[in-house]
């Protein structure tokens, strides 16, 4: 029988716990599984943002990514919303294992602190939102404040939670197998969640 390495498949070398497979496996990380999950949730968020109020830039295919002010290229929040009155909302999404949400949030807030200062120095009124949807489909404590402040439809929470969970289920099913790099997982207009 051929080994995982001979077949070019991700090799999971751990006990295969949920936390390991959903968020901490180097083989699955290198295969692009976690980016696919993150970007699937991110796409749902971007599709929910009302365009009449914001100019939207997202770190997704199909968007030209450019911050409206000068900043270090290492700082690249997932979504940047800019209004005509110089408000800028920078949104950084993380899809961690639920027990790691606080640490993920704190790490992202620290990382993007200087970016907020750069925006302010450039004459913008910045707001940084570091938000989390857990791998098992649970929103982080900051999620609801962000949805309310940005006036997103309540359905965005259900949809993002469902996408994160479905993506994790697909990743679990593919552990140790071939990762085909599927298109982003979309709900395709499902009404009842």
Features:
disordered C terminus; 193 residues; alpha+beta
Describe the 3D structure.
- The chain has a single domain, classed as Restriction Endonuclease.
- It is 41% helix and 12% strand.
- The protein has seven helices and four strands; from the N terminus they run ααααβββαβαα.
- Strands 1-2-3-4 form a four-stranded mixed beta sheet.
- Helix 4 (33-48) runs antiparallel to helix 7 (155-174).
- The chain is globular and about 50 Å long.
- The termini are far apart.
- The model is unreliable at 1-9 and 189-193 (pLDDT under 50).
CATH class category label? Alpha Beta
Q: What is the alpha-carbon Rg in Å?
A: 18 Å
How many distinct beta strands? 4
CATH architecture: 3-Layer(aba) Sandwich
How far do the termini sit from each other?
Answer: 42 Å
Domains, number: 1
Q: SSE string, helix = H, strand = E?
A: HHHHEEEHEHH
């Amino acid at each position: 029988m051929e080994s995982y390495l001979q077949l070019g498949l991700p090799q999971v070398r751990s006990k295969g716990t949920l936390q390991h497979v959903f968020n901490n496996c180097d083989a699955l990380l290198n295969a692009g599984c976690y980016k696919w999950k993150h970007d699937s949730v991110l796409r749902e968020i971007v599709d929910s943002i009302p365009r009449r109020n914001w100019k939207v830039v997202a770190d997704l295919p199909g968007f030209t990514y450019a911050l409206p002010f000068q900043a270090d290229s290492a700082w690249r929040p997932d979504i940047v919303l800019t209004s005509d009155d110089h408000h800028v909302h920078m949104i950084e999404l993380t899809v961690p294992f639920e027990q790691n949400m606080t640490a993920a949030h704190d790490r992202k807030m620290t990382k993007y602190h200087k970016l907020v200062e750069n925006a302010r120095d450039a004459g913008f009124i910045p707001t940084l939102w570091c938000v989390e949807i857990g791998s098992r489909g649970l929103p982080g404590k900051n999620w609801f404040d962000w949805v309310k402040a940005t006036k997103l439809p309540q359905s965005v929470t259900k949809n993002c939670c469902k996408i994160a969970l479905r993506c994790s289920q697909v990743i679990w099913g593919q552990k140790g197998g071939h990762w085909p790099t599927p298109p982003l997982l979309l709900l395709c207009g499902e009404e009842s969640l």
